[in-house]
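Input (structure):
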C-alpha cells in the first residue's frame, strides 16, 4: 500500500485492518493491528479463502485492503464486494488496487464494474502504468495498467 494513500486515511487509535489476498503480508509492517488472509501459507498470514473468510467473520474493520487479489477472484468479485461492505466500521475504508488488463490469473474490471465497487464516498481514484521486471513466465520486462480506489463507507 502506497504511503500517499495512507495519508488520506484517518484511523482511530484502536483500529483494525483486514488485508485480503495479502501474499507475504508486506502491509503488516504498516499497521499495528493487522489481519492478513491469503490462500498461500506464510508466517503471520491466515491461510483462508477470501469469500469463505468474509462469510464467517463477524469482526468490523477500519480499513479493508484488496491489492491485486480481487481480479483473481473475478467470477466471485460481486459476492466478495458485497461482503466487504458488510465489514467496515462506520466511516471505515475500502482500498482496492487492481490490474486494468487481462492477466494470466484473472481479467481486468470494466469502468462499470469499478463503479459498482464504490459504495460510499470516493476519496481517491487513479489509473497509471508500471514497469514490471522479468518474473515467472514473463522473460522480459513488461508493463501493467493499474487502477486504485479508496472508498469511505458512511455510517
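Output (sequence):
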Amino acid at each position: 500500500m502506497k504511503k500517499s494513500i495512507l495519508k488520506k486515511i484517518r484511523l482511530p487509535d484502536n483500529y483494525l485492518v483486514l488485508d485480503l489476498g495479502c501474499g507475504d503480508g508486506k502491509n503488516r509492517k504498516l499497521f499495528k493491528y493487522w489481519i492478513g488472509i491469503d490462500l498461500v501459507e506464510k508466517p503471520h498470514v491466515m491461510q483462508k479463502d477470501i469469500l469463505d473468510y468474509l462469510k464467517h467473520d463477524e469482526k468490523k474493520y477500519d480499513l479493508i485492503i484488496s491489492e491485486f487479489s480481487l481480479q483473481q477472484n473475478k467470477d466471485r468479485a460481486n459476492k466478495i464486494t458485497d461482503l466487504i461492505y458488510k465489514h467496515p466500521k462506520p466511516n471505515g475504508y475500502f482500498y482496492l488496487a487492481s490490474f486494468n488488463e487481462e492477466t494470466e490469473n484473472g481479467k481486468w474490471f470494466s469502468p462499470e464494474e469499478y463503479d459498482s465497487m464504490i459504495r460510499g464516498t470516493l476519496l481517491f481514484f487513479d489509473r497509471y502504468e508500471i514497469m514490471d521486471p522479468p518474473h515467472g513466465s514473463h522473460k522480459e520486462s513488461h508493463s501493467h495498467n493499474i487502477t486504485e480506489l479508496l472508498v469511505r463507507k458512511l455510517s
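Notes: The chain has a mean pLDDT of 89. Residues 101 and 108 are 5 Å apart (CA to CA).
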